[in-house]
Structures are given as structure tokens and as C-alpha cells.
Amino acid sequence: MTHAIYTYQQLQLKSIARLKQIYSEIACTVEVADKRCKDAWITAIADYQASKVQKLISATPDEQTTAQAELDVTAQAQAIAPEELTTVEISFYDHEFYAGLKLIASITHDDDLTQPWLVIVNGIEKFRANTWMRCYRYISWHHQDGTLNEPVPAQTEAPSITENEIMAQIFNECEKYGFEILDDGIYRDDIKLGEVGHTDAGWWFTRAADAIQQRIPCNSAMDAVYWLSMVDTMPHAEAADYEEMLDRPFEMLTNEEWGQLRQLVTA
Question: ∠ at Cα 25 (21, 27), nearest 5°?
């Protein structure tokens, strides 16, 4: 059985946990001087690999041919397998990803309302998502299959959608939340939440509580109605009562107050 041959530089980029794993994978027999020290693990692995190379040099021609074939297979596997990613945190919003010493991608953040996290490769935006973790998975997956640097597929024109289809999608999503659709917008418990629409091949919504009725773009009717469902329609006095109950010790709440809090959580 053959194993990858790691350079000292590659080992320096590994964590102690990964070094321990490599030590086990190659069945290293060199004793680690200090198991709490990263350099001790690196030295042990490097010395063990050096002994294997020396054994190859001193082997008979037949043994050398066999060992060289094994090393060739290992080298080919290394050429195919992508290097392990290393993450460097620049700030809370900005992270860089390296394969060895090469910068392959970065994650950053902008003011997009629905998909603020984005993946940048060679200065080009490749992917957007609503969470940092989705961007991280995108980089990991495409790094593994070698497609991270492939061109972004050209955007195709979105298929046209009829007025009836638009209204049907909005109605289906509102029905999930028990919302009512009236001529001037979407309501919950007689309180207007806002409006949802589709124009110029794009979905949008507005919030009734906003002073300026600005159309906020989104990806679908489902997203639009979901964002409206997050609008706080609780009267301020009632909200203050709930906040007061949450501030009190649990043992001081009455059964009725517990019931009110449960309704708030499940609403």
C-alpha cells in the first residue's frame, strides 16, 4: 500500500489534528518527541518519509523497480487529488482560501438583501448565497472536482410568466401562512403586511410599515411572502408586555403567561 509523500512546506500548512491523521495513515513508526508540539509531528513524519526514500535508493534493482512503481502511482494520485484548503480570516466578512500557497477563492459580503454572501475567483463573482456556509461548500465542492475556475454559465432569458400564474403562485404561498389577499395588498389579522409582484422577469415585495414603499427584489413568490411573514405586526403595548414577561424569572410566570409565551413562539 502506498501513501502520499508530503513536503515539509505542505506539512507546515496542516493542523495538529491533520498531522496526527497523516501520521496514522502512513503508519509512521518514528516517535513524536512532544505530542503537544506541531513541529514534533512534522519532524516525525518527515524523518519517516526520508527513511522510506533512502530504502528505495539502497534497494536491489528488482526491489527498486517495484518501489519506484509504487512511488509513481503515489505521484500520479497527488497530481490528481486537490490540495487541502486552508482558510485565512481577513475580517468577519472576508475570508481567503488557499490550496497550498496559492489563493484560489475568497468569500466576501455586500448589501444585497437576500443573498449578501458571494464567492470571488480570480476577481470574478462566481456564486451568491444567503449564508457564509453555502459559499464555503461551493468552494469546497468545486475545488474537489476541479471546476472552480470554469467560466460562469451565460445567463439565459427567463421564461415569460402570465398574470394568472403570478397570482396563483402568490395565492399558494399566502395560503401557507393564512394570509388574506385584497386589492391593495396582503393582510394578516386585518393588518396590511405589504405587496408582492412580478415585473420585468423579477419578483419583488414591499413592506406596508416602510415609510417609502420601495420594491425589494427577491428570487420567487415563496421568498417574497416569507419576508412579509417576518414583518412584526404586534402592537407596541402587547410587545412590551411580552418583553416584561421574558425578563422575569420563569418560576414567577403564571400558567396564563406561559400559554401566552407559547403562542408567541408558535405564531
Answer: 115
